[in-house]
Amino acid sequence: MQNLLTQLKTEIRRRNYSYRTEQSYTGWTKRYRNFCSSENINQKETTSLTSFLNHLANNNASASTQNQALCAIVFLFKHVYNIKPGTLKNLNHAKRTKHIPAVLSPDEARSVINNLSGAKKLITQLMYGSGLRISECMRLRILDIDFSYKQITVRNGKGGKDRVTLLPSSLKGRLQAQVGKVGKLHRMDISNGFGKTLLPGNLSKKYPNAQKELKWQYLFPSRKISRDPRSKMEHRYHQSAQSVNREISQATKKTNIQKKVSAHTFRHSFATQLLQNGYDIRTVQELLGHKNLKTTMIYTHVINKGGNYIKSPVDTICEQSEAVSR
């Protein structure tokens, strides 16, 4: 098993996949191997892959979970076993469920944000003001913020694509102050013998001195210096998404909002309110980084299914009764 996992990690890192993907693929490989052992089936036969995926579906796994497992095990077959899985016959696809995302009104968003402080408040404002995913916000580097053109570059977003989104004018001053704080922290790290950061891809080999440059430092650095699990380099990583979600949850509890609010809710709210304000859906699609327009169209359902779209019959009779009484 250990040799297999070592091979798997080597292939993942050779393709510059993220550490999060490495953890996911490693976990699914372990589950797949344990399943094959318990069922007494050959792990290198494609029928075993179908059996494993059907096992997940039969145990109420969601469609996204099943698809994640599929991607991981197909990677194992193709790049470690050197086998092309081909078409998976008799595969039972887990049922996909469509959820309308929860969104916040401007007043609700303001209420939650006002109960936040420090970097967590700025992070939340960026997600709400620029439509960033929490992971994208955490990975921002100083060079990704362009104050002159009022834009933010999102690098290696979902699907491995770069995109540009807007930088809210109201956040310019706070972002400049945040860059100043990072610069001060970075100078302190360098004086203490640290100051290097991990660069994407093979940039550290191409530009060996860039690791200590301020522009490559994370915009929202962690309070602690930690050891990277891959390179073993000690560096200051970015803040964790979990800590941001925890702060948002606590801030929401201080309000009267009875909705399930997370970091992603602010991205949903960004898209919904742009559409409500009359912006073209294609523009919103580009700002969000959606590959398919259908993904963006879910926000039109949020708008169209609200109380401003359909007049309830009870409103009609109440209005008629009030008119008669007058």
Please describe what this structure looks like.
- With 326 residues, the protein is mainly alpha-helical.
- A hairpin with an 8-residue loop joins strand 2 and strand 3 (163-166).
- It has two domains: 2-79, DNA polymerase, domain 1, CATH 1.10.150; 103-319, hpI Integrase, Chain A (Orthogonal Bundle), CATH 1.10.443.
- Helix content is 53%, strand content 4%.
- The strands form two sheets. The protein has a three-stranded antiparallel sheet with strand order 1-2-3. Strands 4-5 form a two-stranded antiparallel ribbon.
- The longest helix has 21 residues, at 19-39.
- The model has no long low-confidence stretch (mean pLDDT 88).
Mean pLDDT over the full residue set: 88
CATH superfamily of the largest domain, by name, is Intergrase catalytic core
Number of strands: 5
Flag low-confidence runs.
none
Quaternary structure state of the chains depicted: single chain
What's the helix count?
Answer: 14
User: Which range best describes the helical content: under 10%, 10-25%, 25-40%, 40-55%, 55-70% or over 70%?
Assistant: 40-55%
Q: Please identify the structural class as seen in this structure.
A: mainly alpha
* CATH-derived architecture of the largest domain: Orthogonal Bundle
Question: What are the key terms here?
Answer:
53% helix; mainly alpha; DNA polymerase, domain 1; two-stranded antiparallel sheet; 3-stranded antiparallel beta sheet; 326 residues; 5 strands; hpI Integrase, Chain A
Write the layout of secondary structure elements.
Layout: H1 2-14, H2 19-39, H3 46-58, H4 63-79, H5 106-113, H6 118-130, H7 134-138, E1 145-146, E2 151-154, E3 163-166, H8 172-191, H9 203-206, E4 226-227, E5 234-235, H10 241-253, H11 263-276, H12 281-288, H13 293-304, H14 313-325
Antiparallel strand pairs: 1-2, 2-3, 4-5
Helix pairs in contact: 1-2, 2-4, 3-4, 6-11, 11-13, 12-13
